[in-house]
Design a protein that fits this description.
The complex is a heterodimer of chains A (719) and B (263).
Chain A: H1 3-31, H2 35-42, E1 51-53, E2 73-81, H3 87-91, H4 98-105, E3 110-111, E4 117-118, E5 126-132, H5 138-143, H6 172-183, H7 196-203, H8 216-233, E6 240-241, E7 244-247, E8 260-264, E9 268-270, H9 282-294, E10 299-303, H10 326-335, E11 338-343, E12 346-347, H11 385-397, E13 407-410, H12 447-459, E14 466-469, E15 472-475, E16 487-492, H13 497-505, E17 509-512, E18 518-524, H14 537-544, E19 546-547, E20 551-553, E21 561-567, E22 575-585, E23 592-601, E24 621-622, E25 627-628, E26 636-642, E27 651-660, E28 663-664, H15 666-673, E29 685-686, E30 689-692, E31 695-698
Parallel strand pairs in A: 2-5, 5-6, 5-7, 11-13, 20-31
Antiparallel strand pairs in A: 1-9, 2-16, 3-4, 7-8, 8-10, 11-12, 14-15, 16-17, 17-30, 18-19, 18-21, 21-26, 22-23, 22-27, 24-25, 27-30, 27-31, 28-29
Helix pairs in contact in A: 4-8, 6-12, 9-10
Chain B: H1 2-22, H2 34-48, H3 54-76, H4 84-103, H5 108-117, E1 127-136, H6 141-150, E2 167-172, H7 173-180, E3 196-201, E4 205-215, H8 226-250
Antiparallel strand pairs in B: 1-2, 1-4, 3-4
The chains are: A alpha+beta (719), B alpha+beta (263).
Chain lengths: 719, 263
C-alpha cells in the first residue's frame, strides 16, 4: 500500500465518523432542548425585558382619601388615546403631547389642530395614553430638521410637516401620501447584512435596530416621556393613569387588523415597547408579557377593532394556522382578559349577518378593514365578540380550551389626545383629515373642496371618494361609518391604579358608547331571596352571587337568576329597556345558539312573555332640531330575571345590554348645525347603549366524550 | 529713487507683519484631544463589538480630521449663514440649555411664590358626610319626598334605593355633582347639619338630605404637598422656559418686515 492510497483510506474512514458525529450533535441539539444553539443565544440580551423605573417622586397629595367602597364604585375612563408620538397622528397634524392628553382628561380644554377647543363636560376617572409602539416618536423626529435621522433621504418629505402655517385641511393630500409611504418599504428597509447595526440588533433581540430609518435613542426617549407623563399625572384617589402603548400588528396576507393596547400596572415598565417589528404574531407578545410578569411587571393587552380584522381577531386557529389548544387558550386569557368592543371606528358587538334576529345588531357598523386603501370589505365572521363567545364555547366543547372568555370595555382610539364622546360635540379621530363636517361627509362639499378631496384621495389610492345625494356632493371616504364612542368602565373599590387594574383582570367591567350609563349585573341561584328595594341589595348580591366577568358554577338542576340594575347618564337621554343576551351550546352536538331577551321596560311597561319584547314607549326624536320626547323613559331600571329556557347541561353565557331612548347621531347634529338636512343614506338617530361583561354558566362535566380536533391536541386516554 | 524703493520695502514688511499677525499659525492647527479619540473608539467598539485595529483607528482619526478641515473651510466661506438646519440646531441647543438650567434648583422663594399664586389648585375641598332618601321620578317623587319631610316621625319611609347607595362619607362637591348631576352640590352649601332638608330634584328623581358632618375646605401647608408642587413647578418651567427667555431678550430686537408684501 503506497502512501497515497493510505491517505485515501483514512479519508474514507473519516467520512462516516464525521457524519455520525454530526448526527450526534444534531440529535443532542434537537432532543436536549438545543444546548448548542443556546450557547449562541446566551450572547443575546433581550432589550425588551430591561425594566426601567419611570416613577416620579411624589407623595400622595391628599391625606383625606375617600375610603375604599366594598360595594365598589363605577369609574369611567379611556384606555385608547394617541398623541403626537404616533406616526399616523403626527402626520395628520397632531401636536398634542401626553401631558396635554392627561390635562384634557382631568377637565382642561386643549386645542384641535384645526384651532377649536376640545373640552369634556365632566372629567374622566382614568386615562391611558397608548401611542403606537411601532415607530413611536419617529415621525416627529423625521419632521424635526435638527435630528440626525431627519437628514436621511426618506425623511425629507416630512420636514417641518406640522409648522403652524401648514396646519390646514389643504395639506391633507401631502399628508395622506406620507401616511401611505410609512407603511411602504422605503422606511422599513434594513441595513445591509455586514452593517454593525445588524449584529447589534441580533445581540439585543431588537430588530428595529436593523432598520435604516430607526433611531433607538429617539424611540426610547419618546417612550420615556410617555411614561413620565403618566406617572406625573397619576393622582391616587382622584385620577388614575396607566403607562401604555398600542401593539399595531396585522396578518401578513390579508392585512387583517390584530391591534392591541398593552396597559401596565406599575410606574415601572420595559425600556421599550414590544412592537410589530419584533414580531407580527400576538402569541409572541403574550410570551413577552409572561416574561415581564415573572419580573414583577403585570400587563394586560386589549384587542380592538376586531370588526375591521377581516375575521382574523377571533379565529378558530392560531396566527400560524395551527389548531388552538389548551395552552394557547390559557396563555391568551392570562394576557387578554378584555376586548374593546366599541370605539370611534365602529362597534364590534355583533353584525346583522351574524345575528339576523337581533333588531339592534345594525349599530355603528364599520364594514371595511382597518387602514385598507381602497376601503376593502371586512368579513364579519371572526370579527365580532358575540360570535367569539359562542366560538369559545365550541372550542371548549372540542377540548381546546376557551380563548374567548373576555370582558368588555369601550374606548375612543382618538388621535388628537382628546377622546370624542358626545354626538353633539364630535371631532372624530385623525385631526386634519376628519376634523370638520365637510371632510367627514356629514354636509355637502363646497365645489373647491370637492376637487381638492378627489385629488388627494386619488393620491391616497381611493379613486371614488365622493357621492352625489339629494343635497349635493358629499365626501364618502369612510368617516361616515365612524362615531362618537366609547368609554371603559370598571367597578372598583377606589380610584387607584391597583384597584382599577384588578377590576380589569377579574373582568368586572362594562362598555358604553360614550354615555355615562351605569349597570350592575349579578347571577346566582338564590338571588330571588334578596329584596330588590333593600338598601343592602348590592352587598347581598355580592355575597350570594357572582358579578359580571365571573363564572356561575352549576348547582344541580337549579335555574340561574340574575339581578340587573341600570341607571341612566344624568346628562343623557332616559333608558328605554334592559336586555339580556344569552348564548349557549347544545351539549350533544356542539351547535351554538343565541337569543335576545328584553328583561325590563321603561315607563312601567311589561315585557311580552311570548316575544320577550318591550312595547314601544313612544320616545321620538325631532330631526329638525334634535329635541327628544320629554317624560318618556326611565331614569333607572331594576329587575330580577330567571332564564325561561334554561337547560342545565348547556354551556352558556349571559350579558346585559342597556338601551337609551333614541337621540341624534353626530352626522345629524353636524348637518342641522350648518343648516342642512341629515344625509339620507345614514342613520339619523342612534340608541346609546352599554354592554356588561358576561357571566358564564358552567354546567357539570358532560358524559359526552369529544375527540379533540386539530393535529396538535394530544388525544387523552379514555380510561 | 533709492528712498522710494526703501519706502516700498518698509511698507512690504509692514504688510507681511500684519498678515502674520492676523493669520496666526494657530488657526491652521487641528487639536484632537485624547478624550475625543477614546470616546470615538469606544463608540466603535460598542457598535462592532471588538477592538478596532490600528488601521481602523487611523481611519477613524482621518475621518475626524477631514470633517474638521471641511468644517473650517466652510466657516471661512461663511456657509453657516442662513442655513436652516444650522439655525434650528443652534436654536434647539439653546432651548435645551435653558430648559435644563431651569430644571435644576428653585429658590425657596420661587417655590413659595408659585404655591401662593396657585393656591386654589391645591385647595382641599370641603367634605360632606350625609345620608339621603331617594324618591324615583317614576312615581310622583316630589309629593312623596315632601310627605317624608313633613312627617314628624321619620319612621314613615316609602323611599326608593338609590343606585349609588344611601350613605356618602366625606364627599366633595365635585363628587356630589358627578353622582347626582351638575349643580346638585349647591343644595349642600350653607345647609343646616343634622336635620332633613329638601326635596331637591336631580335627573333621577327627588332627594331629601340629612347632612351629618361638614369638614370645611382648606389650603394645605406647602410642606404637606411639597412634592406635588415641585412636579407642577417643573412642568410649568419646562413649558415656559423658552417663551420666558424670548420675552427677556426679545425687547432688544426690532423686527423689520416689508409692509407691502403680498401673500
Amino acid at each position: 500500500m503506497n502512501f497515497k492510497s493510505k491517505k485515501l483510506l483514512y479519508l474514507l474512514l473519516l467520512l462516516p465518523v464525521l457524519y455520525i458525529a454530526q448526527l450526534l450533535i444534531i440529535d443532542i441539539d434537537v432532543n436536549k432542548k438545543r444546548p448548542i444553539l443556546n450557547i449562541f443565544k446566551l450572547m443575546q440580551d433581550d432589550s425588551a425585558l430591561e425594566i426601567v423605573d419611570f416613577s416620579v417622586d411624589k407623595k400622595t397629595t391628599n391625606s383625606n382619601l375617600p375610603k375604599p367602597n366594598k360595594d365598589r364604585n363605577p369609574y369611567y375612563g379611556d384606555l385608547h388615546v394617541h398623541t403626537k408620538y404616533s406616526f399616523d397622528a403626527y402626520v395628520f397634524g397632531i401636536t398634542a403631547s401626553p401631558d396635554d392628553a392627561y390635562r384634557y382628561a382631568k377637565g382642561d380644554g386643549i386645542l384641535h389642530p384645526l384651532g377649536y377647543e376640545m373640552k369634556l363636560r365632566e372629567p374622566l376617572d382614568f386615562y391611558s395614553v397608548t401611542d403606537h409602539g411601532f415607530y413611536m416618536g419617529m415621525i416627529q423626529a423625521f419632521a424635526d430638521t435638527t435630528t440626525d435621522i431627519s437628514k436621511k433621504d426618506f425623511a425629507k418629505p416630512f420636514h417641518d410637516l406640522n409648522r403652524k402655517d401648514n396646519l390646514t385641511v389643504e395639506s391633507a393630500g401631502e399628508r395622506s401620501d406620507l401616511f401611505s409611504s410609512i407603511i411602504g418599504a422605503v422606511i422599513a428597509e434594513p441595513h445591509p447584512n455586514w452593517h454593525p447595526s445588524m449584529i447589534k440588533a441580533w445581540l439585543t433581540k431588537n430588530t428595529q435596530q436593523a432598520l435604516k430609518s430607526f433611531d433607538y435613542d429617539i424611540h426610547k426617549s419618546a417612550w420615556a416621556d410617555i411614561a413620565r407623563s403618566a406617572n406625573e399625572h397619576n393622582d391616587p384617589g382622584k385620577f388614575t393613569t396607566f403607562i401604555g402603548y398600542e401593539f399595531t400588528t396585522s396578518t401578513d396576507i390579508e392585512g387583517g387588523n390584530l391591534h392591541r393596547n398593552v396597559i401596565f400596572n406599575s410606574s415601572e415598565a420595559s425600556i421599550r415597547p414590544w412592537t410589530r417589528i419584533d414580531s407580527l404574531n400576538p402569541e409572541d407578545l403574550w410570551t413577552w408579557q409572561d416574561a415581564l410578569r415573572e419580573k414583577g411587571i403585570d400587563t394586560v393587552s386589549i384587542p380592538h377593532n376586531s370588526n375591521g380584522s377581516n375575521g382574523q381577531m377571533f379565529e378558530m386557529e392560531s396566527f400560524l394556522g395551527r389548531a388552538i389548544d389548551q395552552g394557547y387558550s390559557d396563555k391568551r386569557m392570562r394576557n387578554e382578559p378584555l376586548v374593546e368592543v366599541t370605539q370611534v371606528k365602529g362597534t364590534s358587538e355583533t353584525h346583522p349577518l351574524l345575528s339576523p334576529d337581533d333588531d339592534w345588531a345594525d349599530f355603528e357598523i364599520m364594514d371595511v378593514r382597518v387602514g385598507s386603501r381602497p376601503p376593502t370589505y371586512s368579513r364579519p365572521s371572526g370579527g365580532y365578540v358575540r360570535e367569539a363567545y359562542l366560538n369559545g364555547l365550541t372550542l371548549e366543547f372540542t377540548q381546546q380550551g376557551n380563548p374567548y372568555k373576555f370582558g368588555l370595555i369601550g374606548s375612543t382610539d382618538t388621535h388628537t389626545g382628546a377622546g370624542s364622546f358626545d354626538e353633539f360635540n364630535y371631532w372624530s379621530k385623525v385631526g386634519l383629515l376628519d376634523g370638520d363636517a365637510e371632510n367627514r361627509g356629514s354636509v355637502p362639499l363646497a365645489p373647491e373642496n370637492r376637487e381638492r378631496l378627489e385629488e388627494y384621495m386619488a393620491a391616497f389610492n381611493q379613486p371614488q371618494s365622493t357621492i352625489t345625494l339629494e343635497q349635493g356632493d358629499y365626501a364618502n371616504t369612510g368617516f361616515t361609518q365612524w362615531g362618537a364612542s366609547g368609554l371603559a368602565v370598571v367597578w372598583a373599590e377606589e380610584n387607584t391604579r391597583d384597584s382599577i387594574f384588578k377590576a380589569f383582570k377579574r373582568k368586572e367591567t362594562f362598555a358604553t358608547t360614550g354615555s355615562r350609563i351605569a349597570v350592575r349585573f349579578f347571577g346566582g341561584f338564590n338571588l330571588s331571596s334578596i329584596d330588590l328595594n333593600s338598601d343592602n341589595l348590592v352587598s347581598e348580591s355580592y355575597e350570594k352571587g357572582v358579578t359580571m366577568g365571573g363564572d356561575l358554577i352549576s348547582d344541580g338542576d337549579k335555574t340561574p337568576e340574575f339581578i340587573v340594575w341600570a341607571q341612566k347618564d344624568k346628562n343623557g337621554a332616559s333608558l328605554q329597556r334592559v336586555q339580556i343576551i344569552k348564548g349557549w351550546m347544545d351539549t350533544t352536538s356542539g351547535r351554538p345558539s343565541e337569543k335576545v331577551y328584553d328583561i325590563a321596560c321603561s315607563d312601567d311597561l311589561d315585557v311580552d312573555p311570548v316575544t320577550h319584547r318591550c312595547p314601544d314607549n313612544g320616545a321620538r326624536v325631532n330631526i329638525t332640531d334634535c329635541s327628544i320626547s320629554q317624560n318618556v323613559g326611565s331614569s333607572e331600571l331594576k329587575t330580577l330575571w330567571r332564564d325561561p329556557e334554561f337547560k342545565s347541561s348547556d354551556k352558556s353565557f349571559y350579558y346585559v345590554r342597556v338601551l337609551e331612548n333614541p337621540t341624534c347621531r353626530w352626522s345629524t347634529w353636524d348637518a342641522i348645525k350648518r343648516g342642512f338636512k341629515p344625509r339620507e343614506d345614514l342613520h339619523d338617530t342612534i340608541q346609546e347603549r352599554a354592554w356588561s361583561s358576561p357571566i358564564w354558566y358552567i354546567p357539570d362535566p358532560s358524559d359526552v366524550v369529544v375527540v379533540p380536533l386539530g393535529g396538535t391536541v394530544p388525544i387523552r386516554n379514555s380510561n | 529713487m533709492k528712498n522710494k524703493l526703501f519706502i516700498f520695502f518698509i511698507i512690504g514688511i509692514c504688510i507681511y507683519l500684519i498678515d502674520i499677525g492676523l493669520n496666526s499659525n494657530e488657526d491652521k492647527n487641528i487639536y484632537i484631544s485624547d478624550q475625543e479619540i477614546l470616546s470615538l473608539v469606544n463608540a466603535w467598539k460598542s457598535q462592532v463589538g471588538r477592538e478596532p485595529t490600528d488601521d481602523e483607528i487611523s481611519r477613524i482619526i482621518n475621518n475626524l480630521v477631514q470633517e474638521e478641515i471641511l468644517y473650517r473651510e466652510a466657516l471661512s466661506l461663511g456657509l453657516e449663514q442662513e442655513d436652516k438646519i444650522i439655525k434650528r440646531r443652534l436654536a434647539q441647543k439653546i432651548t435645551f440649555l435653558k430648559q435644563e438650567s431651569i430644571l435644576k434648583d428653585f429658590s425657596q422663594k420661587e417655590i413659595t411664590d408659585f404655591y401662593n399664586a396657585n393656591r386654589d389648585k391645591y385647595y382641599v375641598p370641603g367634605l360632606y358626610t350625609f345620608t339621603h332618601k331617594f324618591f324615583s321620578s317614576s312615581s310622583n317623587s316630589k309629593e312623596r319626598a315632601q310627605n317624608h319631610l313633613n312627617n314628624s316621625n321619620r319612621l314613615y319611609e316609602n323611599s326608593d334605593p338609590f343606585f349609588l347607595g344611601k350613605n356618602f362619607a366625606e364627599t366633595s362637591s365635585l363628587e356630589i355633582n358627578s353622582n347626582f348631576g351638575s349643580n346638585f352640590s349647591l343644595y349642600f352649601e350653607n345647609s343646616p347639619i343634622n336635620q332633613w332638608i329638601g326635596p331637591y330634584k336631580s335627573s333621577f328623581g327627588h332627594h331629601n338630605l340629612f347632612i351629618t358632618e361638614y369638614t370645611p375646605g382648606f389650603h394645605p401647608n406647602l410642606d404637606d404637598i411639597y412634592d406635588q408642587v415641585m412636579v407642577d413647578l417643573n412642568q410649568l418651567k419646562r413649558d415656559s422656559a423658552i417663551s420666558d427667555f424670548i420675552k427677556e431678550v426679545g425687547s432688544d430686537y426690532s423686527v423689520i418686515i416689508n409692509p407691502d408684501l403680498k401673500i
